[in-house]
Amino acid sequence: MSESAEERWAGWGDPAAAVSLPPSIAALLEALGVRPAAPSVDVADVRVPESRLPDEVRQALAAVVGAANVLTGPEARARHGGGKSTADLVRQRAGDAAGAPDAVIYPGGHDEVVAVLRACTERRIAVVPFGGGTSVVGGVGPSLSGRPRIALDLRRLDRLVELDEVSRTATFEAGVRAPRAEEILAARGFTLGHVPQSYEYASLGGFAATRSSGQASAGYGRFDDMVVALTVATPVGTVHTGRAPASAAGPDLRQLFLGSEGALGVVTSLTVRLRPQPVSRRYEGWRFESFEAGALAVRRLAQDGPRPAVVRLSDEYESALGPAAGGCLLVLGYDDGTDADAVLAADGGTALGPEPGQRWAAERFAAPYLRDALLDAGAYAETLETAAFWSRLPALYAQVRAALLDSLDRALVLCHISHVYETGASLYFTVVVAQGDDPVGAWQRAKARASDAILAAGGTISHHHGVGTEHRDWYAREIGPLGVDALRAVKAVLDPQGIMNPEVLIPD
Amino acid sequence: MSESAEERWAGWGDPAAAVSLPPSIAALLEALGVRPAAPSVDVADVRVPESRLPDEVRQALAAVVGAANVLTGPEARARHGGGKSTADLVRQRAGDAAGAPDAVIYPGGHDEVVAVLRACTERRIAVVPFGGGTSVVGGVGPSLSGRPRIALDLRRLDRLVELDEVSRTATFEAGVRAPRAEEILAARGFTLGHVPQSYEYASLGGFAATRSSGQASAGYGRFDDMVVALTVATPVGTVHTGRAPASAAGPDLRQLFLGSEGALGVVTSLTVRLRPQPVSRRYEGWRFESFEAGALAVRRLAQDGPRPAVVRLSDEYESALGPAAGGCLLVLGYDDGTDADAVLAADGGTALGPEPGQRWAAERFAAPYLRDALLDAGAYAETLETAAFWSRLPALYAQVRAALLDSLDRALVLCHISHVYETGASLYFTVVVAQGDDPVGAWQRAKARASDAILAAGGTISHHHGVGTEHRDWYAREIGPLGVDALRAVKAVLDPQGIMNPEVLIPD
Q: Over pLDDT 90: what percentage of chain A?
């Protein structure tokens, strides 16, 4: 196995797709007191600690997956040392790969995963499953403990196992990345309709393990809605779950592994519900006088329809630079379906035509590239997100925004609603602030304040990023001590030596 | 607390609503060799064993709930000795209440439930939560072990806690029965839309604990789709779960308690998603040439819409006595919504007008009353149900039907599809057969054969009746040894003395 050079080190995506900052943003940064940052250290110069993996372990793993699929070189390990949070990027830019794994293993199928987990359990080596590596909550590292560990990169598990056109389901191996899955499905007339911002790199297994939600969730549902069956490799054997679209046979064990973030086992394949490719797809923009007025309108769409596939309402601050300046921009995306014009007009919306929607769609994967340009310019750009029932949303919005503004110096705080349900919605906050002397520490303090505000206002600590290491303490507060005990009990059974992604999800 | 006499002993519902058999069915029974059965023993004459509950325990429970809410008399205990399966009714008709609980406790609220569970854990007294008592899978007894136990009847937990019109959610205590909940909601313009055949007596907590699915599930979803939050009393304390319509914060713990059948704790309140009352409601019938042709049509509705609220397709045998004789009857119910006429006609359906649909709707709760009349007449009428992905449904249908016909002498076996999803559907079988010398034993043998066939053909052991004691062994096969271990581990944490409904769900 060799690492492809296609992905940018200490940044996002294809280096050829890197962007420069628009002049308007450059001017804004100057107003925020932002000064250009030091350039990123090259991946060849990153400081990676010596691998702690004993030769015996390396040989045992090579016996399972083949020697060519066990990498211990610095670049492979550095590239598996974390995800894509801004804190990850800041550390990577500084050449710091202290928390990198001791080896990267590329299994070729489910049975090899089972054998790797068995070998690592016998030797108490920690295992971090690694899909697209796009976690922004510490889900794939860096490790904060000194325990030896391997990254289990699933990219070789990339097959379509079965496509059942009658049941409209497809079974994929877990390492298939989203664009490849859509390419395979499109050739047969189907789509998943799952398009999160991480789409270009994320894997189907990662979507399942983190309960991902895509930009078209209003029309296609969340990824956990799409998964009808799972195969999970654990250190004590294999679990198959899901024999029907729905069942009254006890607790839904699919829902125990969805969101388990590799802490209970490795999702090695999954069966997902398909939809036909839409005949037509179009985007449009609407303007509302206020975030409150827009929120009322999108609540009506979620509760009474018609429901577009994409529903995304920016607050006044996020809207300020766009075509709805002085009000709020609502972007809608339709995959076939009835238009919502009458409802939106009745709720005070003004149609802005297709252009704002098309622009959003054209730039829908651009934010991570823009973040890299902001990092170069000396800014720190990060996001956090939550969800709550509709009646709690106004207070949640106000209190999280206040916590961020109060704990950061001259920050830009933007927000949008991008996932709507009958009973509630998500809030997605973006923060831009000067890096200053200790960008990671300053953000951690602000994030902690915002996370406290989320729980106090009745929100969930994550609507679609997951728990990872970043949200672990708040997650424990959210589910309470008995919830934590229940998860620990399950983990003790399926992972008796505690090797599975031991730093995420479940607090020690 | 006193037992109301409103519910029929050894039968279903209001005695005043008892029905006689239509002449056509009486003639059919004669052809099946059915001879009238012995009349039911009166409830006053039922054999109930002495209560094994020590005085000290009774006093401790009385200190929690009040002496008036601890009943140890024979009638109350007999009435909590089982559910409403035909086997339950046959035993009750024979005057056998051997498996009755040793006392019936009526707590007045969540805190009293917690205190009862604590007291019972200290004394290792088993606790069977009891809502509407409508289980048909042994979910509320009779007990097959000699262990002392109480029935925890939740009828006093009957309050609406909160109605949130903005979020369209309502929080109810768990003992509220479905008609009362709908009455409360209708006064505010809302409905749950959850109408299973047990509707007249079942409780909301029971719906949650068993993953109930109602006749209008195509339009309103299953009950597990409706529950956005739960409060659960366990022997070690209280669990609250659900803060948002959706979350990426770890495994969905709501889904661990939904379907847990009282084995992990007692659902004491729940927050459910509401819908507006429909403006119009109408029913209609369609005829298809075959079950296969009808199944194709309802699959199209489930996958591409338009989707009526009620979709119910009878096979040739179930259709034989009705207006689609020689073909198959499809009943549709619309709550507002677009009609599906064009799709159905294109798929070969013939419209039969509103009458067959209206007749089904008028008789939708009649089957359990009819079953009582069949029992009087000497027949044994029972049902079983499953679900699978669409591509597996034809073989599942054929194999379960064959297993039933092969293991019962001169049985009538009917089937319908009554819950449809994008990826699959349920199959609901009804069997009518002469009681013979050992009706319960003969059915158990036939049911075992059918259950084996369900698993072999890739179905789930229950789509909406639950696991109880009846499906426990097949459930274990369905989820596999690691699934069972995971559930046992959770139970050991939340119920360390194993007092919670110890005979259901999780095999010893």
A: 90
